Amino acid sequence: MNNQLEFLKTVQPFNVLSEDVLQGVAELLQEVIYTKDTPIYHQEVTKMRGVDIIAEGEYEAFFYDSEHNKRVIEYHHKGYCYGGVSVLLNRKKSLRSVIAKKGTVVYFLHRRDFRALCQTNEEFFQFFTGEFGKRMINDEYAHFVKKPTTFEQNYIASDQLYSRRIESIEYRSLVSCAQDAPIYEVARWMAAQKVSCLFVKDAQNRIVGYVTDITLRDNVVAQQVNVSEPVSSIMDNPIVSISTEAFVYEAILLMFRTQTRYLLVEENGVYLGFISRNKLLSEQAQSPFMFIQSVRLARSVEELRRRWEKVPEIVYQLLSRGVKPEIVNQVITTVSDTIALKVIESVIDEMGTPPAKFAFIVLGSEGRKEQTLKTDQDNAIIYEDKANEQRELVREYFLAFAEQVSERLDKIGFSFCTGGYMAKNTKWTHSLSHWKRNYVSWMQEPDPDKVMKFSAFFDCRYIYGEAAIVDELKAFLDEELQKPLGRFLFHMANNAMQYEPPLTYFKNIKTFTVGSQEVFNIKKAMTPIVDLVRVYALQNRIFKTNTGERLEALLEKGVFKETEYQELMQSYYYLMSMRLKKQAVQIINDKTPPENFIDIRSLTKIEQVTLKEIFKTIANFQTNIKVKFTNALFG
């Protein structure tokens, strides 16, 4: 027994207990010896009698997937305590499957005695819940914990659509012609090669455009163009390509975003061939991408409204199948963008050709491609500078245009922005030069209120019109960010401090009462991550808008370490998954408008522990950014 007592003094968390308590625990331990490799626990099946403290040897712990493959394998050795989390947080069932290796010796402590220790010693108890919270930030670990008994579902198969790469798709060889080739020769060549898309090359052998059957119909026959003209005069643009390393779902979403039917397949800067949208969609007949195609084909506001009402069901299905929340965000964004494009095009058809080039941009969560199911309109219009005599005419057109777009989006389900950040607001439809002055004013003469109010405009994303206008604005911002910015970044950093993670002094989740519920606001819990990543992106002149993409760019620049990047990414998208699923359930099951309140009593102990760990991570990053930008301000 003395040996067991001395051993316990070296084991976390038993070493926090007093000598007297340890003496009592040592007397309760039972020694167990395994003479050969022995499967001792099966995930979600074996009921834990207590906890095992490894004295000698090794435990192999893992999850079995549906095909009985071992996943998230861990090896535990002398001094490791297995079973604490299972007893405390998992209905006394083993979280993982465990094999005790030959020659392993463990000291067993019954669960009633283990629980007694947890009830009388907070630090002892927090050791197990804290360790588990850190593990739950790992996506793969969390997947098996949250869906432990669905052996009939194939985890790998359910995620295959979102893990398959372009290199696995059979693509067609490139068929091309010179840009000075006559149109009739190009048509003959397409017929001979049996292709519906032919690429056009310039004198340097670079692909500069493409011709499709639709090109010949719309640009040649409908316009009665002389077929002896060079193909360059009627070819389509832009050229859109994708790497063989990209995922299939990324290719489909890219096609919808760029409204192209064909993608060039590229590897190490070399074009290998091309793929068509029909090819990809035909292989994904039951996927949400067919739904996106149905949105594209919708003809009326009412039809678009019915399509948008189906989105919560798709979101819930995707999350339930284990699809990553960042992918679900992309699906929502693509549907939303597609609807907006349909509306914009229909208004232009009715009002006639715009009197100036323009760009329709989206802001805030939509600009970051992080829309949820509780969403409103955040958009603006930037039009080219025109001569004085045309200014009023141009402005009158775009304000009327914005009014029509906004009204139709509202009918579809994208409610008016309560803060007025919409193109229909005269403040947010202006010329490019006016927008440049806006940004200079926000950056050169900042104050806390102004920075907080206009931070969403640094998440702007082009969705329709002349991309070159937005490119020029970003180039202008790039130049401005290289100038002395005074207190601008300090105020931006301070903005990331406005929403504190909902933790009490004792590291429990802080709630407030709404009706009969004890809730926290998950949107506000996520806001600090969005804000602090934005300020780091601006400081490093990164013009991506998506939080995950900004984090990746900051990692590549060495601003964040790998561990910091992983902590923020996993924390942010864990919260996003919880938020999306809650909203989908409210719409589908409760038939109520979605909200951002999470009732703490609706969460499992596992989810509560994970959230506490995430909130600690956010608080730590807030502290770091406060120190960094306060020091920078005062030198």
Defining key terms:
single chain; 635 residues; alpha+beta; 4-stranded antiparallel β-sheet
Detailed description of the structure:
With 635 residues, this protein is of the alpha+beta class. The radius of gyration is 29 Å and the shape is globular. Strand 10 and strand 11 form a beta hairpin. The strands form six sheets. It has a four-stranded antiparallel sheet. It contains 24 helices and 21 strands.
Give a quick rundown of the structure:
With 635 residues, the protein is α+β, with helices and mostly antiparallel strands. The protein is 49% helix and 16% strand.
Mean pLDDT: 89
Output the radius of gyration: 29 Å
Helix content class: 40-55%
The number of helical elements comes to 24
Class from helix and strand fractions: alpha+beta
Number of strands: 21
Low-confidence stretches: 148-159
Largest sheet: 4 strands, antiparallel
Sheet with the most strands: spatial strand order: 1-8-3-6
- How much of the polypeptide forms β-strand, as a percent range? 15-25%
Oligomerization: single chain
Terminal Cα separation, in Å? 61 Å
Give the CA-based shape: globular
Domain CBS: 170-229, 235-294
InterPro entries: CBS_dom, CBS_dom_sf, cNMP-bd_dom, cNMP-bd_dom_sf, Diverse_CBS-Domain, DUF294_put_nucleoTrafse_sb-bd, GlnD_Uridyltrans_N, RmlC-like_jellyroll
Pfam families: CBS, cNMP_binding, DUF294, DUF294_C
Protein name: DUF294 nucleotidyltransferase-like domain-containing protein
